[in-house]
């Protein structure tokens, strides 16, 4: 049935209500439906759309939905017809119980705009429930002595239906002793009662079975039945009797808790409760017995509650009581004696009679440490005890009397090994099984000063830049003493020694407390390169002990000297250098050579030459490294006869130093090579000047012979002193552990990086040896991680308290009363969600509606007024709408990455006294918006790849993460287009878009490509998508895949035989020719060695292992074949080794002079006048004399300076310990704590091998040879070393700060 109240005109209202209301505006009506319960699902209740005045299209557009205030959704709206239909089974009794009226309120929510309507559905009752009893079986116990007329209330039947469908009548089955009475109370409820109409006799009938039937008033009527069983109770008139009045039992003391002791038994001839017996301990039982024993109240069995202890009490007496359950209760008594038997249950106990004191570590054997005793509470064999100590302990037990012992030392003590002993003593008794106990006695060993201080290192290497600030700290040494207290306190001092004839204390001083060493003044690398400091550490014990260490201080060079020109000699004096050249000279003709040196060393001494200005720049070129001036093309008649060149000479230091030299070249027709041939004959002296010339020649010969004799004497002295440690060129202290004499290198370190530069000094004037190529192998490993903790939501439920009903056999008393119920504030407010919250976007503006809620309270008046509030700190607030309805809206910015879900706690409080409140947690999920770009774990990556690898192999895997969720967090990887040697990088590598793995497209060749970069982009799949980039640096590592290639002699390059000529008058060591080869590989793989594989006469020639120079081993004789053939093998040092060979044919000729002279020698131009010859002889004599004098002075001064340490001025090759591989390229080997794996030195002209070195390593160098090792991934770095292209001859080395954690290395320069 539907009833609709619409709108009325205010005039009809005024007339109908007799002008009670003067003016009313429009009143919102209410819709009410009435349906019977138990309708089928889908049954139509009413046309909701029609009653609300809505069209069918508005149902969809305005999202009409129905919400039940009861919580269960019993109704739904048919969107197609607009009808309200039954959604679920409706049970009126479940909804409204016994209430006469059952109305189900509904809320209709309409959006756009948001509107709330209220409707009511009345549920009518039908007779669908039969009367039922709470218990189908009821038992009544009635004593046989009960008098007639007593009434016993019975259980009323319950019918969930109301009105006439409820319970109507009761009936009882027929019985001789019982009848039924029905009592009707004021509210119309009927209460059945059982009436005893005849006396009971238990001996005749023990049980009476009755049936109570309840009928309702429905049509048809329904009924319910309850069975009533009446048990007739007996009367108690007999006393219980025990089988024995006294019991005795023996129990072992180790019996477990709950163990059976003995059974007592009593009987009662009565029946039922009157014959049931309960056992208990006597009323006067002491508490000690009650704590140990327990009796079963039904069986009379006695059990142990706690463990017995024979040592505490060996016997117990227990009084037992037996009572029946009759009324009045009858009682009987007996006694039980329990004897406790002893078992071995007590371990021995060790007691310290005197506590041990500190024991000096030099105490003698037998010294008493402590006194102790042992005892056992058990008796007999169980109480006999023996003691023992661990075998490894330097202590022993010495028995005294009656289980008393003395703990004494039995061996030597050492506090530094064991400063404290925890002596474990084991005591074992003789029981079965035996028991034991242990006691640990701590004994402290006091210190004796028996250990000297020990430095952390046997020696220290300190690297100090020259020109430093005086007073700055050089290093801090540290020593430790294993002793304790005053014996371990250390003071530091410097032992007196000499540095260049001056006490070392004038250079440095040390802080005696912390071992910090400070400089007294600044140092000059060019004057002092290395010196040693002897540091002593002394403790304060008595007597004091000490130890020493050596601090090697290496002065590091700074670029404070400009290059100095040493050739041409005229340029040295600042004048113009004049040179002549034939116009017929071809391209590549050597015109002259500029040679300069730099007083600095290493990187600062690397010199490069550059043609700054030239009359014709197209005609001449200057070698960058050697300074050789050669023709770029053949000279022509059009070229000016006078050419002026200005050559700039720069070092490689910071700041850079430079110098210039000007060379004037005169082009002449018909001029031959400027190198003189020894075959040219000297002009014959004239008769007039013959004597003067003869005297000058004799003087020159005498001075030359004297110089030669002097050199021979010094050479013999060096050979005689070869067994000692003396040196003629350097001090012994400067050459410990040196390697590769004749040249050395230096490695500069700082506190945060291992290697700054590697320097190689020296070289002859005509060959620049500071040209290098390098390949580094940096291994940088670091990562960033961002940890995102997942948020969690805890679901809470409320606990409903369940009250306990009264006992079923309790007696009920009912009286008629009139009760007026006054309302009190006993109902808490209730918060109901009108609409479930949907996920909220994290970019939602403030004020966005999240959910609709309603607050209600079952109380009335002020007790039902409810206020709501939201917990603080939440970006949400409540916006009231109407009649206790609210909208939950956002009040601030949301960020899903910070909080992906909010559990909004809403508190409802009423206005009662005292006020009651309730809380409801509304979970709100925040949906993701793509507002975070992917982030790589590293800003850049370094990848090291061997050349000639397998195409398709994986290079590296990059990884990026995105803080967003779902599709917004899915990351895909791609390679950004870039060029590598003018080719797209995508032709070299490709990337897996899913996991970021980068693969090679083909193998790489180190000689063609050494390093390239890959730009990788990580992009998410959000809309719009976000991305970030990273750089992957790929370093190609060299493999030995190239054999050495011969570049000189030129004929050998073309594969033909190389022909050379040599005079038979050549002496020992004569340079015949030189073989030069290069290797396209780098580093260790490019180290080249030369070997004479075959020879016509192996005793005549030798080949230098590292330079390839072919020299005579002895003077040639007339018996030697005029044609000599040499097969020279050239090998590199790679793995596997590569090699090549060259064949040289040497023709021995008579009268052939030396073909090569020094360019600095002036050509004697014969003239008609012989005066020039005399002048030249005088100049030569003066030059040789001055040179000899200067040589003597230099050697004398050096010997005097080194006399205190070496005592000799010659150095043996064996003095450089572990000398290996002279005149060879160099390499530095580090362990896994250092980044550099090798350093290679390349370059030099064909006739002078500039890669040849002889160097002595600085003291304390760890390795005796340079060995190449492969890069290690465990190397620690903080920054990346820049690796430049080694293919260019003018490549430089760039080093940045690195971290070396284990070892520093240094090399000094001679």
TrEMBL record:
What stretches pass through the bilayer?
692-716, 1175-1197
Q: Which residues form the Cadherin domain?
A: 27-133, 134-242, 243-350, 351-455, 456-565, 581-676, 840-936, 937-1046, 1062-1157
Q: Which UniProt keywords apply?
A: Calcium, Cell adhesion, Cell membrane, Glycoprotein, Membrane, Repeat, Signal, Transmembrane, Transmembrane helix
Q: Where is the signal peptide?
A: 1-29
Q: Which GO terms describe its molecular function?
A: calcium ion binding
Gene Ontology CC annotation, any one: plasma membrane
User: PANTHER family from the entry?
Assistant: CADHERIN-87A, PROTOCADHERIN GAMMA-C3
Query: What does the UniProt function comment say about this protein?
Result: Potential calcium-dependent cell-adhesion protein. May be involved in the establishment and maintenance of specific neuronal connections in the brain.
Quote the protein name from its UniProt record: Protocadherin gamma-C3
Protein source organism: Pogonophryne albipinna
The organism's taxonomy opens as: Eukaryota, Metazoa, Chordata, Craniata, Vertebrata
């Amino acid at each position: 049935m539907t009833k609709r109240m619409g709108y009325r005109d205010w005039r009809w209202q005024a007339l109908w209500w007799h002008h009670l209301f003067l003016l009313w505006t429009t009143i919102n009506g209410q819709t009410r439906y009435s349906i019977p319960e138990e309708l089928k699902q889908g049954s139509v209740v009413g046309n909701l759309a029609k009653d609300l005045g809505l069209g069918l299209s508005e149902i969809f557009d305005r999202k009409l939905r129905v919400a039940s205030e009861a919580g269960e959704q019993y109704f739904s709206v048919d969107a197609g017809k607009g009808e309200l239909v039954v959604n679920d089974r409706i049970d009126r009794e479940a909804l409204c119980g016994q209430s006469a009226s059952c109305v189900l309120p509904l809320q209709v929510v309409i959006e756009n705009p948001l509107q709330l309507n209220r409707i009511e559905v009345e549920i009518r009752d039908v007779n669908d429930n039969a009367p039922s009893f709470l218990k189908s079986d009821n038992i009544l116990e009635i004593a046989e002595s009960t008098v007639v007329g007593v009434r016993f209330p019975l259980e009323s039947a319950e019918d969930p239906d109301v009105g006439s469908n409820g319970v109507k009548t009761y009936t009882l089955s027929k019985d001789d002793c019982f009848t039924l009475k029905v009592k009707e109370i004021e509210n119309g409820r009927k209460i059945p009662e059982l009436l005893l109409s005849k006396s009971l006799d238990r001996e005749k009938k023990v049980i009476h079975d009755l049936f109570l039937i309840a009928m309702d008033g429905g049509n048809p009527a329904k009924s319910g039945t309850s069975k009533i069983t009446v048990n007739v109770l007996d009367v108690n008139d007999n006393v219980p009797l025990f089988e024995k009045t006294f019991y005795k039992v023996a129990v072992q003391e180790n019996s477990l808790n709950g163990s059976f002791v003995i059974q007592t038994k009593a009987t009662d001839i009565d029946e039922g409760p009157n014959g049931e017996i309960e056992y208990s301990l006597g009323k006067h039982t002491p508490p000690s017995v009650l704590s140990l024993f327990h009796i079963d109240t039904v069986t009379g069995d006695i059990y142990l509650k706690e463990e017995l202890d024979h040592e505490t009490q060996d016997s117990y007496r227990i009084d037992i009581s037996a009572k029946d359950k009759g009324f009045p209760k009858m009682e009987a008594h007996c006694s039980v004696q329990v004897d406790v038997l002893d078992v071995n249950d007590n371990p021995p106990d060790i007691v310290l009679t005197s506590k041990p004191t500190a024991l000096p570590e030099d105490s003698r054997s037998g010294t008493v440490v402590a006194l102790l005793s042992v005892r056992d509470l058990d008796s007999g064999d169980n109480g006999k005890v023996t003691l023992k100590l661990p075998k490894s302990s330097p202590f022993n037990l010495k028995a005294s009397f009656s289980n008393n012992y003395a703990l004494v030392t039995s061996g030597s003590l050492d506090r530094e090994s064991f400063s404290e002993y925890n002596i474990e003593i084991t005591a074992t008794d003789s029981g079965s099984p035996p028991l034991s106990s242990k006691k640990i006695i701590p004994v402290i060993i006091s210190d004796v000063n028996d250990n000297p201080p020990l430095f952390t290192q046997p020696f220290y290497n300190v690297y100090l830049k020259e020109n430093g600030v005086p007073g700055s700290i050089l290093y801090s040494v540290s020593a430790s003493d294993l002793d304790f207290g005053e014996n371990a306190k250390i003071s530091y001092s410097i032992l007196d020694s000499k540095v260049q004839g001056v006490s070392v204390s004038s250079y440095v001083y040390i802080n005696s407390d912390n071992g910090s060493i400070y400089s007294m003044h600044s140092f000059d690398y060019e004057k002092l390169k290395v010196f040693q400091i002897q540091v002593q550490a002394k403790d304060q014990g008595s007597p004091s002990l000490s130890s020493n260490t050596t601090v090697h201080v290496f002065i590091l060079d700074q670029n404070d000297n400009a290059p100095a020109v040493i050739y041409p000699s005229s340029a040295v004096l600042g004048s113009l250098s004049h040179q002549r050249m034939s116009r017929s000279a071809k391209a590549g003709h050597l015109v002259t050579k500029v040679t300069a040196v730099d007083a600095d060393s290493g990187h600062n001494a690397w010199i490069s030459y550059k043609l700054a200005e030239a009359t014709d720049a197209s005609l001449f070129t200057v070698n960058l490294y050697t300074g050789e001036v050669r023709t770029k093309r053949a000279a022509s008649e059009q070229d000016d006869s006078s050419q002026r060149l200005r050559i700039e000479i720069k070092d490689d230091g910071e700041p850079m130093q430079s110098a210039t030299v000007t060379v004037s070249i005169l082009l002449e027709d018909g001029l031959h090579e400027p190198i003189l041939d020894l075959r040219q004959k000297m002009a014959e002296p004239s008769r007039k000047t013959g004597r003067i010339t003869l005297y000058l020649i004799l003087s020159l010969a005498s001075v030359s012979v004297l110089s030669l004799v002097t050199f021979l004497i010094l050479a013999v002295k060096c050979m005689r002193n070869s067994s000692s440690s003396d040196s003629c060129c350097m001090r012994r202290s400067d050459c410990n552990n040196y390697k590769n004499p004749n040249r050395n290198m230096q490695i500069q370190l700082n506190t945060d990086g291992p290697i700054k530069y590697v320097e190689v000094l020296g070289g002859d004037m005509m060959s620049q040896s500071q040209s290098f190529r390098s390949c580094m192998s940096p291994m940088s490993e670091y990562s960033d991680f961002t940890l995102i903790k997942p948020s969690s939501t805890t679901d809470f439920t409320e606990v409903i308290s369940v009250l306990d009903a009264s006992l079923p056999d309790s007696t009920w008393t009912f009286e008629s009363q009139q009760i007026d119920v006054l309302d009190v504030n006993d109902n808490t407010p209730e918060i109901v969600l009108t609409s479930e919250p949907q996920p909220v976007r994290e970019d939602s503006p403030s004020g966005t509606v999240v959910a609709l809620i309603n607050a209600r309270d079952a109380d009335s008046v002020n007790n039902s007024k409810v206020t709501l509030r939201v917990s603080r700190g939440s970006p949400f607030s409540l916006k009231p709408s109407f009649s206790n309805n609210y909208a939950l809206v956002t009040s601030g910015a949301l960020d899903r990455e910070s909080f992906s879900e909010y559990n909004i706690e809403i508190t409802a409080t009423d206005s009662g006294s005292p006020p009651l409140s309730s809380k409801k947690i509304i979970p709100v999920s925040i949906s993701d918006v793509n507002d975070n770009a992917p982030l790589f774990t590293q800003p850049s990556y370094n990848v090291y790849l061997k050349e000639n690898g397998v195409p398709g192999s994986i290079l590296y895997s990059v990884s990026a993460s995105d803080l967003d969720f779902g599709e917004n967090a899915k990351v895909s990887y791609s390679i950004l287009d870039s060029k590598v040697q003018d080719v797209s990088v995508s032709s070299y590598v490709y990337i897996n878009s899913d996991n970021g793995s980068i693969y090679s497209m083909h193998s790489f060749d180190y000689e063609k490509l050494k390093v390239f970069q890959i730009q990788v982009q990580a992009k998410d799949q959000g809309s719009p998508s976000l991305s970030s980039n990273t750089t992957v640096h790929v370093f190609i590592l060299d493999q030995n895949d190239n054999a050495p290639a011969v570049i000189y002699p030129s004929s050998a390059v073309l594969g033909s035989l190389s022909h050379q000529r040599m005079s038979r008058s050549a002496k020992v060591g004569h340079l015949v020719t030189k073989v030069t080869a290069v290797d396209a590989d780098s580093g260790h793989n490019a180290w080249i060695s030369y070997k004479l594989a075959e020879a016509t006469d192996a005793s005549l020639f030798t080949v230098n292992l590292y330079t390839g120079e072919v020299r005579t081993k002895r003077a040639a004789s007339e018996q030697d074949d005029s044609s000599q053939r040499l097969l020279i093998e050239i090998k590199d040092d790679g793995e596997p080794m590569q090699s090549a060979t060259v064949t040289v044919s040497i023709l021995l000729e008579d009268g052939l002079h030396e073909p090569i002279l020094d360019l600095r020698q002036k050509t004697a131009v014969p003239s008609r006048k012989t005066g020039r010859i005399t002048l030249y002889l005088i100049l030569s004599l003066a030059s040789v004399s001055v040179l000899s004098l200067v040589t003597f002075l230099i050697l004398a001064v050096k010997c005097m300076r080194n006399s205190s340490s070496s005592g000799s001025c010659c150095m043996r090759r064996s003095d450089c310990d572990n000398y290996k591989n002279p005149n060879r390229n160099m390499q530095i080997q580090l362990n896994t704590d250092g980044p550099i794996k090798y350093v290679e030195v390349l370059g030099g002209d064909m006739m002078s091998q500039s890669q040849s070195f002889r160097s002595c390593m600085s003291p304390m160098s760890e390795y005796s040879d340079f060995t190449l090792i492969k890069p290690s991934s465990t190397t620690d770095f903080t920054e990346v070393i820049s690796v430049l292209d080694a293919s260019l001859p003018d490549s430089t080395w760039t080093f940045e700060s690195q971290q070396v954690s284990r070892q520093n290395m240094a090399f000094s320069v001679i």
